[in-house]
């Protein structure tokens, strides 16, 4: 993917990066520049509590080995660069690595050709994952034959009645329902009416699991199945890049050059799909307020820049147009940079100084990008909501602020705080990295998921 990234650059910038790479070829770890990563942003129990601080070592045998030769059907509501589908794909690859037979179904696909869908399907083909149409006899046969069915996101529940029809009750006892949503509009009977009858639900954070438990009971009058809380972990590929100073330096220099910022400028990045729920608008208000505070207090420091990664340069939806209009009106276009959505977030994490996780309302279910940023020794400025509170230790690995408009000024103050205290940024970043190494690595996640899969398989076999 880095090759495609390089080939898409303007010729003068491409030549500059090639010169950097050639200068570093003598170093063996430069090969990591071409490591593929699955990220994005941005892989949780009411009845069974899995300790989020389970520690395993990478030298131990793979905890998913028992899945060898098991047939696993994965059903995703869509195939896109959003968190849910990418997490399910990552689990597919982990299972393929231990010899599982994995079949993928996308319930809702664009009617026309889509480059993203094609690229992701090709990636699955390369990893040995079979892709089937969402409807038809093959889909039904696969669901009946599978040892395990993983239904991804609440919206994927629409697939059950539409495709399985009279076979729904046969398949439900072997379904693990992986839920990532925190938004109220997902609580519809047509989505989750079968939820009480599946083998289990897996949710990415304790706060989200509690929310689903209460909301389904109070609003829908249904009971959650046995629910497992499984915190996510960073992939080995991402950690290899994060821990390689040569690769990080090359990424940092190139990205900053492409953005037109200097090496000593301070970059605050928000990396999410651009939408109101992710809070890019409030972040830019905070960023503008922080610039005003610096000017009023006559603080001397390097230039501050805001980077918004996750734009849709082709469509430019209404919300993003609002963001760009605000930037123009406040005359801060030289300080704010919009970057198109991408699978390759590692180069941007390597180039930044602080991550802003500004998801609104109930926050992120977990927030994979948060632990990815911490792996790169970045402090996190996050909303005090959702899974972020289970990742970020306030005043230790980052600073938390309220959601909504009430959080604009606190976030602005936190931006100024970290911008004016380099030692605090470094200390928080280091402690964040240590927390990732202790709790949020791929083998931690694999161990936690393995415990869930064993129980679900046992339930399915009993039925």
Provide an overview of this structure:
With 463 residues, the chain is of the alpha/beta class. The chain has helices at 2-7, 11-24, 83-97, 115-126, 137-145, 158-164, 168-171, 189-192, 206-220, 236-242, 245-259, 280-297, 318-329, 346-351, 368-375, 388-391, 408-420, 422-439, 442-462, and strands spanning 71-76, 101-106, 130-132, 148-152, 175-179, 200-203, 227-229, 266-271, 304-311, 336-340, 354-357, 380-383, 398-401. It is built from 19 helices and 13 strands. The chain has a seven-stranded parallel β-sheet with strand order 3-2-1-4-5-6-7, with helices on both faces. The protein has a six-stranded parallel β-sheet with strand order 10-9-8-11-12-13, with helices on both faces. The longest helix is centred in the C-terminal third of the chain and has 21 residues, at 442-462.
User: Per the principal axes of the C-alpha atoms, what is the gross shape?
Assistant: globular
**Low-pLDDT stretches:** 1-8, 17-59
Q: Please name the fourth-level CATH homologous superfamily of the largest domain.
A: Glycogen Phosphorylase B
Largest sheet: number of strands, sense, barrel closure: 7 strands, parallel
Provide the number of structural domains: 2
Q: Could you tell me the strand content as a percent range?
A: 5-15%
- Quantity of strands, as a count: 13
Q: What is the helical fraction, as a range of percent? A: 40-55%
Rounded radius of gyration (Å): 22 Å
| Highest CATH level, the class of the largest domain | Alpha Beta
CATH architecture of the largest domain: 3-Layer(aba) Sandwich
Strand order of the largest sheet: 3-2-1-4-5-6-7
What class would the helix/strand composition place it in? alpha/beta
| Count of helical stretches | 19
The termini sit apart by 44 Å
Mean pLDDT score, rounded? 87
CATH topology of the largest domain: Rossmann fold
> Quaternary status of these chains?
single chain
